[in-house]
Amino acid sequence: MARIFIGLCLHYLLLATSTFVIVQSQKPQIPAELQRLYNTDLETWVAPKEFLKDFPYYLSGFDEEDHPIWVLEFGRWDIRTTVERGPKSQAKFDKYVDQAVMIIYNSSIPDDGINPVIGIVDFEGYNLRQLSSAKTLEYIIQKLRLILIALTNLQSAYFINVNFFAEKILNLVRPVLGKEFAKPSMAVSKNIYVYQIPPENLGLFAVR
């Protein structure tokens, strides 16, 4: 009887372990470029309230297939002022952006695999002041490389309220964005662009 009991215990233990291994194997590996973010206090760090107000991004909801919809109100991001305030201000902003990158990436890797995200970038309010600073443009391109890695599981991107200055910045960063962003999949109107990422390219376009 004791042998039977022990045998049953071992059987269920092995079954549970096998199930655990299968589930764990479905979780995608974090890209090497993002791993440093997980060795910091970003998961518990509370961003300054003024950052949340001045540099808004948020989870808007989910589509009918349960894909997270993230909105970035980029037109309101006064990155130039942050850069011009010096290293201390820029370091805080770096941390804010890094935390946003980690949060958005985490939303695309639930426990049961990959759930591609949808991005909406709102350029309303983007102006010449942001575009005319070489330091600001250099900083944007530098951070964009990290952001694109976080969006490795991006399904589609919507660029809305694209004004003259937003069009200029998009033209400047397109080489960094890659071929999937060379031309919109469709232009809903003159100031709304839609980029659909082919399923076979998920996880590939972000690294350039």
Helix and strand layout, with pairings?
Layout: H1 2-26, H2 32-35, H3 49-54, E1 57-62, E2 68-72, H4 79-84, H5 87-107, E3 117-122, H6 128-131, H7 134-150, E4 154-160, H8 164-177, E5 186-189, E6 192-196
Parallel strand pairs: 2-3, 3-4
Antiparallel strand pairs: 1-2, 4-6, 5-6
Key features?
47% helix, 6 strands, Phosphatidylinositol Transfer Protein Sec14p, disordered C terminus, single chain, 208 residues
Low-confidence stretches: 2-26, 197-208
- Largest β sheet strand count, sense and barrel closure: 6 strands, mixed
Instruction: Provide the residue-averaged pLDDT.
Output: 76
The CATH class label is Alpha Beta
* Count of alpha/pi helices: 8
| Element-by-element helix/strand order | HHHEEHHEHHEHEE
Structural class: alpha/beta
Which outline best applies? globular
Strand arrangement, largest sheet? Answer: 1-2-3-4-6-5
Beta-strand residue fraction: 15-25%
CATH architecture: 3-Layer(aba) Sandwich
How large is the radius of gyration?
A: 21 Å
Percent helix among the residues?
40-55%
| CATH H-level superfamily title | CRAL-TRIO lipid binding domain
Distance between the termini: 63 Å
CATH topology-level name: Phosphatidylinositol Transfer Protein Sec14p
Counted beta strands: 6
Signal peptide: 1-25
Organism: Allacma fusca
Keywords: Signal
Domain CRAL-TRIO: 47-208
